[in-house]
Design goal:
By secondary structure, the chain is mainly alpha-helical. It has one domain. 58% of the residues lie in helices and 0% in strands. Helix 1 crosses helix 2.
């Protein structure tokens, strides 16, 4: 589990007043290789929150800091349940 990356995402999200999920969507939207982000939602509120991620801007220094904290290998991805537990302090 890459807690450094999770903590970096949570810290930047808090400073921007958004959720880590919204920041993750906003980050994906900065990627040249990503043409579309399809984020699931269990209810209308989650769908609205996901859509609001399009309004979040990540400046160059923030983007660099995030990318330095992310794992360099595809297998370094974090599972949703582990992320939830970490952010809840479990």
């Amino acid at each position: 589990m890459n807690w450094v990356a999770l903590d970096a995402v949570a810290e930047l999200a808090a400073s921007k007043g958004c959720s880590p999920a919204q920041l993750a969507i906003a980050w994906l939207l900065t990627r040249d290789e990503v043409s579309t982000v399809i984020a699931g939602a269990s209810n209308p509120e989650q769908a609205r929150d996901n859509a609001l991620a399009a309004d979040i801007t990540i400046d160059g220094s923030e983007l660099e800091a995030l990318e330095r904290s992310l794992p360099a290998v595809p297998g370094g991805a974090v599972g949703a349940l582990e992320l939830r537990d970490h952010l809840r302090g479990a």
